[in-house]
């Protein structure tokens, strides 16, 4: 059984996230997602719209995902790889070459997958704010 592990905030779940998880699962048989805790998000300078429990619940509903664990620190990755007997750590291309992932190459494979262009959580937030701001309605007509 080939075990895959990926990390992320996964806020305002969108098709870019789903396509990443689908392709990550295609690399093996079992996909673990380490989703950032609210406290760790603060450390990353992020404030998620949905809290940890909600983001975890949404990820657990995705057919490609077999297990969701918390991501609480930058430094837990090596322990995660060992504890969950991970063969491959997968991340989107925006992390390509990041030493926090490259340093894992002595204990597992590290694979970066192309990001899905044209969608991001921050873009969704910005567009919703703009729409709300200039028309007062939540949805663009
Ligand atoms: N992603 C993607 N395409 C997008 C948006 C995101 O492939 N259009 C990928 C990212 O590359 C990442 C995953 O989806 O692999 C989750 O994205 P985020 O929730 O933004 O995660 P991030 O803030 O990058 O957290 O320790 C690592 C961090 O926790 C990663």
Automatic annotation (TrEMBL):
Gene3D superfamilies: HUPs (3.40.50.620). InterPro entries: Archaeal_FAD_synthase, Cyt_trans-like, G3P_cytidylTrfase, Rossmann-like_a/b/a_fold. It comes from Adlercreutzia wanghongyangiae. Keywords: Nucleotidyltransferase, Transferase. Its EC number is 2.7.7.39. The gene is tagD. Residues 5-126 form the Cytidyltransferase-like domain. The keyword Transferase applies. The lineage of its organism: Bacteria, Bacillati, Actinomycetota, Coriobacteriia, Eggerthellales. One of its GO terms (molecular function) is glycerol-3-phosphate cytidylyltransferase activity. This is Glycerol-3-phosphate cytidylyltransferase. Coiled coil: none annotated.
């Amino acid at each position: 059984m080939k075990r895959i592990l990926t990390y992320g905030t996964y806020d305002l779940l969108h098709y870019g996230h789903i396509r990443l998880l689908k392709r990550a699962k295609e690399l093996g048989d079992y996909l673990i997602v380490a989703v950032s805790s609210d406290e760790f998000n603060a450390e990353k300078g992020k404030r998620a719209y949905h809290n940890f429990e909600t983001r975890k619940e949404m990820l657990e509903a995705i057919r490609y995902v077999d297990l969701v664990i918390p991501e609480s620190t930058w430094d837990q990755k090596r322990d995660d790889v060992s504890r969950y007997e991970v063969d491959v750590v997968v991340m989107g291309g925006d992390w390509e070459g990041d030493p926090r992932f490259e340093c894992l190459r002595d204990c597992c494979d590290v694979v970066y997958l192309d990001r899905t262009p044209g969608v991001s959580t921050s873009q969704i937030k910005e567009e919703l704010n703009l729409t709300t701001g200039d028309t007062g309605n939540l949805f663009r007509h």
